[in-house]
Amino acid sequence: MPRPRAARGLLDLRGVRQYSIQGPVAGYPIRLNGTTISILVTWRRNPAGVEVARRDKEFRVASQRAYRICRLLTANTVTGDAIGLLDSMDRTAKHFKKEELASSIKLQESGKLDQFYKSYLELLLEKNVGFTRLRLWIRDPKCNWVPGERSFTVQYSFCSSEAENPVRERTNPYHGCQTKDTSPFTSLTVERALQSLLKETSVFGTADPNCDLLDKNPDSEWAVAPLVKGDQLWGFISGEVDAWDRSNKRMGAGKKIGELQHFALDVIAHTVSSFQPRFLNHLWKNKE
C-alpha cells in the first residue's frame, strides 16, 4: 500500500490535500465478467494517538473487506442476492454487543463464540446465497506445522434440509472429521493462504480424497475459503451446493458454484477470520 509521499507520481496532490490523506492508500480493480469496470481506492487519515503498526493493520483489514464486498455486489448483473446477504450480515452483527466484537478474546469471554460462528455460516445456507452444506475446519493445535503433518478438524458443520444424509445426526453431522495436508486440496489451501495477500477462496471441480468421509459426490464442485489472522492460518471453511439424492442414497452432483457463492463465502470467511478459538491464541503470542 503506497503512502502519499512515496506515490506522488500516482496520486493527484489536489485529492491528497482535499481529503487530508496522510496514511496508507490502496487500490483494487473491480471486475465483472472478466472486465475491469472500476477501481476501489481506499485511504485513511492518521488518527491521533494510534500506533502506526496498529493503524496500518486495521486499514488493511478494512480495505480488504471493502474490496470483497464490492466483488460480491458485481458477482451478477442483478445484485439483489448479494444485497440480501449484506443486509443479513448487518442484522447478525446487531445480535452482538460492540465490545464483544472488539476481539476474539472479548467474544469468547462473553460465551458467544459458538453463536457467532453459527450465525454467520448459516447465512450462506439461505436461499439468496445457495450453499447447501458447510464445514468450519480448525487447525489442530498439537500438530507439527510442517508439510505432511498439518491437520485440521471439523468443529462446526451445517446442512440445509435438502442436503441432509438421513443416517447422520442432523446437528453438526461432520463434527470431528479430520483432514491433513497429505490431501492435495488441503495442501493447496494451506500454501495459497500463506502466500496470497488477499487469501482468496478457491473453487475445485475434481474429486476430494475426503469424499467418503464427508458424504461428498466425487463429481461435485466445492469451494474452500481460508481463515487467516495476521500471518497465521487457523482454519478454513468448505462447502457445496448440491442436494442429497434420496433414490441413490448419496449426494447428488452437477450444480456449479457461481461467482455469487464464491464471493459470499469469501466475505463470510474474512468476517469470521479475526475470531479464532481460545486454544489457538498461542499462535499470535508476542505478535500483536
Biggest sheet record: 6 strands, antiparallel
CATH class term of the largest domain: Alpha Beta
Shape: globular
Which class do the helix and strand fractions yield? alpha+beta
Low-confidence stretches: 1-7
The tally of structural domains comes to 2
Number of helical segments? 8
* Count of strand segments: 10
In CATH terms, the superfamily of the largest domain is GAF domain
Question: What gyration radius follows from the Cα positions, in whole Å?
Answer: 20 Å
Average pLDDT score? 84
| Helix-strand topology string | HEEHHHHEEEHEHEEEEH
- The percent of residues in helical segments reads 25-40%
State the end-to-end CA separation: 20 Å
The proportion of residues in beta strands is 15-25%
What does this structure look like?
This protein is of the alpha+beta class and 288 residues long. It folds into two domains: 1-74, no CATH class; 76-284, 2-Layer Sandwich (Beta-Lactamase), CATH 3.30.450. It has eight helices and ten strands. The chain is globular. 28% of the residues are buried. Residues 1-7 have low confidence and may be disordered.
